[in-house]
Amino acid sequence: MTIYQKILSKKKQKEKMLFALLDPDSENLGSLERKIELIEKSEIDFILVGGSTSWNNNFERFTEKVKSVASKAVIIFPGSAEQISSSADAILFLSLISGKNPKYLIEEQIKAAPILKKTDIEVIPTGYILLDGGRKTTVEFVSGTKPISQDDVEKIKDTAYAAQLLGMKMVYLECGSGARYPVKDEIIKRVKEYIEIPLVVGGGIKDRKEIDSKHRAGADIVVVGNALEDDPTILLEKK
Ligand code: 1GP
After folding, report:
1. How many Å lie between the centroid of ligand 1 and the Cα of residue 203?
2. Cα-based angle 224, 180, 130 (whole degrees, multiple of 5)
3. What's the pTM value of the predicted model, to 2 decimals?
4. What is the mean pLDDT of residues 211-224?
5. pLDDT tens-place string over residues 53-105
6. Which of 73, 87, 65, 169 shows the shortest CA–CA distance to 126?
7. Pocket residues for ligand 1 (CB within 6 Å)?
8. How is domain 3-235 classified at the CATH fold level?
9. What is the C-alpha to C-alpha distance for residues 149 and 132, in angstroms, rounded to an integer?
């Protein structure tokens, strides 16, 4: 079974999913093993690796390290075509469809294509939609694109539906890492009425209460990054 098939099957069973995001630029390799041990014991389904920046230039080494410690599948969440490692199990092949920057709409994907052709990583085409989370986040800065205001519900749901019509396999509603507030429940509900493909929600989700509320609103997958830094034990408590 592919990772995408596993996601679809959980969605069908109405099993909510939780992904942990490990960003090579903000992880300390020393504490990484301990964090992965906690992840392994938790309900987290899959591990995402990646981020908007690649200052440390250690993506390959980092992904190999995560893969060597974790038994859970590792999915690349790339900030650019530089973040591809054949040791990962899959890649979210993102297109930043809320923005008008050709680099993140199609150019990085063209750069990535010949690299992916040579690997057998599973590719999951994903429409990536950046929303305003109350402060300028790294993804906004790096991508040079404006997030959609969370007041513009119609635009958000139309963008998500366009992703599905284009044949993308998932929609990712993103407020950016460290957002002041996450995607609002009303937005998730509205988007959910329009799409059948799995809905991923991330950015600024701080605790168990918020994870549950995003799941209840209709997110199939919730992604947490920073909160794992702050207090992994609380976050990873089983329900
Ligand atoms: C993944 O960018 C997020 O979508 C992660 O955000 O670090 O705020 O959890 P946080």
Report:
1. 4
2. 70
3. 0.96
4. 97
5. 877 678 999 999 999 999 999 999 999 999 999 999 999 999 999 999 999 99
6. 169
7. 21, 174, 176-179, 202-205, 223-227
8. TIM Barrel (3.20.20)
9. 5
